[in-house]
Amino acid sequence: MVPLRYAAMIAAVATFISSLTVTLVVDSGWWWLALLSGALTVRGIMDMRQKNHALLRNYPLLAHFRYLLESVRPEIRQYFLEEDAAATPFSRNQRSLVYQRAKQDIDKRPFGTQLDVYQSDYEWINHSIKPAKVGSHDFRITIGADRAHPYSASVFNISAMSFGSLSANAIRALNRGAQMGRFMHDTGEGSISRYHRPEHPDEPGGDLVWEIGSGYFGCRDEHGGFSPERFAANARQAQVKMIEIKLSQGAKPGHGGMLPGAKVSAEIAEARGIPEGIDCISPSSHSAFDTPVGLLQFVEQLRTLSGGKPTGFKLAIGHPWEFFGIVKAMMATGITPDFIVIDGGEGGTGAAPLEFTDHVGVPLQEALLLVHNTLVGAGLRNRVKLGASGKIVTAFDLVRTLALGADWCNSARGFMFALGCIQSQSCHTDRCPTGIATQDPLRQRALVVPDKAQRVANFHQNTLKALAELIAAAGLTHPSELRPHHLVRRVSTNQVKLVSSLLPYLEPGQLLTEADASSVRPLPEVFARYWPVAQADSFNPIH
User: Fold this and answer.
1) Sign of CA dihedral 324, 334, 298, 343
2) CA-CA 20 to 30 A from 339: which of 154, 213, 280, 329?
């Protein structure tokens, strides 16, 4: 008996034979059926003979239906099966909120929350019986107040995304939106491209944070090392407001990258200062420094070369003694960065190994807490501003992150949603359906820059309006007044706690005193264990 798995193949062969006979003998009008069934027969024979796919050998023709259904599984799940509040990685509710705010649609919800308020980890902000009056939602902080060119930054900005990862039209729309809303746009390590600049010289461009990665794109010499002359030429442009050294990113910390030569177009080569058509390597570590002291000396060098613009670095936290070593280097040299951006392990990227995405890098809450506490304990917190990024799209995300210790927040995927991203998760295929994460000129043509730039500005403005309403309800007038005690977290079905009592916070200067002094509470274990072994002149711990 012939197994049922060959039924489709047998049906194709039988149809081909019968339709060919009818076409030749009775009615030539059936030629199309003979052609179709013949093609299926040939396909089935090829399936049985190929050696790469066991399913096709055992289920000729039929297995193609399985592959077809598998290919549309994400869309079926997203459109028909996904729960509104299930964050994978962003929930439908989160995406819808961004779309509504970007389009100036109604962003209100009827009939109550869809969240289980008695589930562990549910969070809220306590409100005041006497809400405050907030005059403006244009919340700003000053970075590098004592520098030659201090920068007044919004508390909500566009996180690092490079031209090359994003399309030309996406970069144009983001930058024009940043200019309209008066907030900053991080270039990503791909450097400053022609699309980060205004189309006409007499038009203003959006404020740029120039990110300098390990490949030194835009400021590299012929051997791939750092070029002070090329850096200064770019850094002193009026559109560049701050300089950010990228040590690592949350989505794939400790992992370098390579852009294949086939993707290194003339425009990407121009922006990065690399040869066109040649593989572009992003090393996993910097060559300009290899110690904490060296990092801070590099910060000072870039700050000087830029003419005194605020300069800092971005990192995902890993080994705690490495960051402790950087702080000890600040104490030893007297050099402090103007800012540090903490990238949480939940951050996203166009493409990363699954293991890195899921299991490398400290999540934002713990990473931000470590950085904030270390600077407080070393007596340096008032000299360094902290930015934070990692799945921040709503006003409550801003509230939580600012209350934990950040001075401002960055968002990448939130602003991608404002551009129209539908979370198809095809960023690495060059087949982005909305023209955002692709270099295909036909696909990116669908992204109309003026329309999407306005949506970027709308999303920023409406999110800050929502932030103003939240802090006003808490009796505050500026996000800088947020503290951990404003947040409440459920730890079980019958117990809640203030975040200030759940998370350890150091006292000012606590790391400068004896840990067992009677006037100081005991150090958390991570500081008690790793602060003594960290060193300013090496990223390695003292053995």
Assistant:
1) positive
2) 280
Q: How far is CA 523 from CA 44, 363, 482, 520, in A?
A: 69, 21, 24, 8
Range of lowest pLDDT (100-104, 150-154, 254-258): 254-258
Cα gap 159→139, rounded to integer Å: 18
Number of H-type helices and E-type strands within the chain: 19, 15
- Written as six digits, the tokens of 490 are 């459920």
Local structure of residue 186 (DSSP, 8 states): E
Give the closest residue to 149 by CA, choosing from 311, 383, 288, 4. Answer: 311
Cis peptide bond N-terminal to 450, omega within 30: no
Q: Are 179 and 204 in contact (CB under 8 A)?
A: yes
Confidence of residue 520 (pLDDT cuts 50, 70, 90): low
Q: State pLDDT tens for residues 92-149.
A: 889 899 999 999 998 888 888 888 899 999 999 999 999 999 999 999 999 999 999 9
For residue 518, pLDDT beyond 70: no
Give the side-chain half-sphere CA count within 13 A for 55: 7
Instruction: Answer whether 274's CB lies under 8 Å from 262's CB.
Output: no
